[in-house]
Design a protein that fits this description.
By secondary structure, the chain is mainly α. The protein has 3 helices and no strands.
Length: 86
Amino acid sequence: MEIKTEIREFVASHYLPDTSAEAISDTMPLITSGIIDSIGMLGLVDFIESRYVIEFMPREIDVHALDTVERIASLIRAKLSRSLTA
């Protein structure tokens, strides 16, 4: 399954239960709009780390990096490509 699709499905099921995953666009603000709060960010990070077997450093976890599906997917791809070259 594509990264963006998995992120959309996670966000829809955990933070927007009345919204379909397809209704979440790549650029929809998730954190700055209040859909995901600071505690929710921890849940999102936990899901990403578990699902993709990657680990975030504290400095990598911020509002801007995790604010949209597009940014989240880019961050995951970057982490995965670094782990393949390490």
